[in-house]
Write a structure and sequence with these properties.
Blueprint lengths: L6 H11 L8 E2 L2 E5 L6 H8 L6 E2 L1 H13 L3 E9 L2 E8 L2 E8 L4 H8 L12 H16 L7 E9 L3 E9 L5 E10 L4 H7 L19 H16 L7 E9 L4 E9 L5 E8 L10 H10 L6 H15 L7 E9 L3 E10 L4 E8 L6 H5 L12 H13 L3 E10 L5 E10 L3 E10 L2 E13 L4 E10 L2 E10 L8 E13 H4 L1 E17 L2 E16 L5 H4 L3 E15 L10 E13 L4 E12 L7 E12 L29 E2 L2 E2 L4 E11 L9 E13 L14 E12 L2 E12 L9 E8 L1
Parallel strand pairs: 2-5, 6-8, 9-11, 12-14, 15-17
Antiparallel strand pairs: 1-3, 4-5, 7-8, 10-11, 13-14, 16-17, 18-19, 18-35, 19-20, 20-21, 21-22, 22-23, 23-24, 24-25, 25-26, 26-27, 27-28, 28-31, 29-30, 31-32, 32-33, 33-34, 34-35
């Protein structure tokens, strides 16, 4: 095995051996190169950056030596100048024939670890690069939690000045995060801060998560998340001074974050400064927004909302080239902020290029753009376009680059995508007080490369079976409107509780589009054939509805969603309205549904929710409402009562009503059990009512308002989420059937 001296030592050694007969410059009459086999003499002369006829000094010799070494082709170099002849002696580095990496099997670790290494087969061997590659491997493995990994490097010299390299990698055990601790002036409880960061404490049920292992990249992200959290709570001078991991066991670490929160500050003066020739009236909404923040606690989100408002103004063609800068002036407990709007140079989109779409048709991607070729370039619309492409959920990666064109004031947009497998197999199971359920489904999100979604699903429970097939084109004929088609078949056996059994088959056809920011409008037609059966105990009016029906409806919907996130929402609201109009129907039932939810964080570790629900079913023709179209209080809106078993009865069967209303209050409560981050506790109050029986007013019990209070628990277990509620009915009717306990356990796999 050859031993190679470090480059720095070689340079020092050979510089010390250089002899120049004169300290002044001399003329090079001749250049001689020896020792080279693969690399030509002319190439070596080119590396030296000197030629015959040039003057040479001692410093030039040092530079020549450095230039040839930096080529990484040589192990040893000597440069001697004597009697007008520059002699260059080289010893070529071996050529790497093969590199073997032992010890890493998983591609998710192997590919990113090896992708950034410098040495490759068929390139010259370099010991410095070898050491760097070894350090890169160790550093990469740390990002996967392998803090105790080792790397041994073996080299094998071959004939013809070639060499094989072997990296023997021992991963060792992963470094587990046994405990996460927050010290200093942290203000908030550990549970709250643990929910902010990405890193997690090691728990046996988190067998899938990689966030329970030590990762330097995640730690840096954690620090940024913590800082942003405190900034949004008014702590302008927040410092995450240090974070470090302390080894507390053989392979267990304690992750420690040192927090200096400082004092809260408040918004004082917030001013808008615009060019003198701008119409101030066009900025009135923005000015009102600034006024609303005066006196409020400083928040980074508040600043971002103001900047977002400025961005929305820039979508107006009149102000498409404006840009805002922020100037802050800090006082002990308050802050003044000037939002300065300046006009920048206007650019236009010359061309949009799309790369990487091997299966997906190009128009599927282009249809997501908010700007087109020839339009004024707008950074906001550009970013929104990229987000639109990502929301298709058919690409693993979407990257965008905006380049300057050769044409003045023009931009070129390059979009690069990486497609991902879009087929899914879904299955789920659950059990509850109402019995067990099972579901199975197959999804395809990019059928024929057109971005079309296909979905089949089968749901089975003790008293029902339902199958559905759905096709959805998110951008039908480049109209920015979705087109959905569904086939549905279902059977519900409600003879024991509600006195009827129904078999229903038909289809939906509908469209949906964004009318305004986060406001979606929907239009759908449904056509169904239904057969209803009743039992011998049913009333005369119920038995009269037995038979076959063909119904055709038009459905209008409005969905306005301003929640900060769809899951584990902490702020915002959602408003939904649906109107079902009969077109061809025996009973001509008109149905209205309105649901409103509002979320807010009243104090630390508390998310409070209020929701309002109303539904009514009316017969336009005056006939009895069909049994399957009557309204019932949803089980989620009235805990403490059995599902559907509330309200009027006819011959022992629950018949629902024409009107349903419900108001729900819930509030999370602070952590009860230590180290129970996977468990959420909440208190709730449900108030609901159902009334109106169209065919017999004597069955109406509209004065009976139902209500309940209770405790709920959401527990994320190894096998899936478990939802538990313990409810106590406060007010009820004699016909109602109550239940104190309800739970559901299920998972998707």
């Amino acid at each position: 095995m050859l031993l190679f001296m470090p480059k720095v030592l070689l340079i020092i050694f050979f510089v010390s051996t250089i002899f120049i007969s004169n300290s002044y410059s001399e003329l090079i009459n001749k250049i001689e190169v020896s020792g080279n086999n693969r690399v030509s003499s002319e190439t070596i002369k080119m590396f030296s950056e000197i030629a015959t006829g040039d003057d040479i000094k001692q410093n030039d010799i040092n530079e020549i030596l450095k230039q040839i070494y930096d080529s990484n082709f040589f192990n040893n170099v000597q440069v001697i100048f004597q009697d007008g002849v520059l002699r260059i002696f080289v010893e070529e580095s071996p050529v790497i024939q093969n590199i073997t990496y032992n010890g890493i099997k998983a591609d998710k670790i192997k590919k990113p670890t090896l992708s950034e290494l410098s040495l490759k087969p068929r390139v010259s061997y370099n010991e410095i690069l070898l050491k760097r590659d070894k350090e890169k491997i160790l550093s990469s493995l740390k990002n996967f939690g392998y803090y105790f990994s080792t790397v041994d490097v073996l080299t094998e010299n071959l004939d013809d000045n070639k060499i094989n390299i072997t990296f023997d990698i021992n991963l060792g055990k992963k470094a587990k995060i046994k405990k996460i601790k927050f010290i200093g002036n942290k203000i908030y409880k550990d549970k709250k801060l643990k929910n902010i960061i990405i890193s997690e404490e090691f728990k046996f049920w988190k067998f899938i998560s990689g966030k329970k292992y030590l990762n330097e990249n995640l730690i840096e992200l954690d620090k940024r998340l913590l800082k942003n959290f405190y900034l949004n709570k008014g702590f302008y001078n927040i410092e995450i001074k240090t974070s470090f991991a302390k080894l507390i066991d053989k392979n267990d670490f304690e992750l420690i974050y040192n927090i200096n929160a400082g004092n809260k500050i408040f918004f004082n003066d917030l001013n808008l400064i615009i060019p003198a020739d701008y119409d101030k009236n066009n900025f009135s909404d923005l000015i009102n927004l600034l006024e609303s923040y005066k006196g409020e606690i400083y928040s980074l989100n508040g600043i971002e909302k103001i900047l977002d408002k400025i961005d929305s103004i820039s979508l107006n063609e009149q102000y498409s080239s404006i840009k805002a800068t922020v100037e802050e002036k800090i006082f002990p407990e308050k802050i003044n902020i000037d939002f300065i709007i300046n006009e920048t140079e206007k650019y236009f989109v010359e061309k949009i290029n799309i790369f990487g779409n091997n299966v997906t048709q190009e128009n599927v991607i282009r249809n997501q753009f908010e700007i087109d070729e020839g339009d004024p370039f707008n950074e906001i619309l550009q970013k929104k376009s990229v987000n639109n492409i990502k929301s298709l959920n058919i690409f693993k990666k979407v990257e965008s680059k905006v380049l300057n064109s050769q044409k003045e004031n023009n931009k070129i947009i390059n979009i690069s995508v990486e497609e991902k497998p879009t087929g899914e197999i879904l299955a789920g199971a659950g059990i509850g007080t109402g019995g067990g359920t099972f579901s199975f489904g197959v999804k395809e999100n990019n059928f024929l490369g057109k971005g079309i979604g296909l979905n089949t699903n089968l749901n089975v429970s003790g008293d029902s079976i339902k199958g559905i097939f759905t096709l959805k084109n998110p951008n039908f004929q480049n109209s920015d409107k979705s087109l959905s088609f569904s086939l549905e078949s279902s059977e519900y056996d409600n003879l024991k509780t509600f006195g009827y059994k129904t078999n229903k088959n038909g289809f939906f056809l509908g469209t949906e589009f964004e009318y305004y920011d986060d406001l979606f409008l929907g239009l759908k037609t449904s056509n169904f054939y239904e057969k209803i059966e009743t039992d011998s105990t049913a009333s005369v009016r119920q038995k009269s509805q037995a038979g076959s029906y063909y119904d055709s409806f038009i459905n209008l919907s409005f969905n306005y969603d301003k929640r900060n996130q769809k899951f584990q929402t902490s702020e915002g609201f959602k408003s939904y309205y649906s109107l079902n109009l009969p077109i061809l129907s025996k009973t001509n039932t008109l149905t209205n549904i309105y649901n409103f939810q509002y979320f807010t964080e009243l104090y630390d570790q508390n998310i409070s929710t209020i929701s309002f629900y109303i539904k009514n079913s009316l017969s336009i023709s005056g006939d009895d409402i069909k049994l399957s179209e009557r309204s019932y209080i949803p089980s989620s809106k009235l805990r403490g009562f059995e599902s559907g078993k509330v309200g009027a009865k006819d011959s022992g069967d629950y018949i629902g009503g024409n009107y349903v209303t419900a108001i729900n209050f819930s509030s999370t409560i602070p952590q009860i059990l230590e180290n129970s981050e996977t468990t959420d506790f909440l208190i709730f109050m449900d108030i609901a009512n159902i009334w109106g029986v169209d065919y017999d007013s004597s069955l109406n019990d509209s004065s009976k308002i139902r209500s309940s209070i209770g405790l709920g628990v959401d527990w994320f277990t190894v096998v899936g989420p478990l939802n538990f509620s313990l409810a106590y009915p406060i007010t009820k009717d004699s016909n109602d059937i109550t239940e104190s306990f309800r739970f559901n356990l299920g998972t998707t796999f």
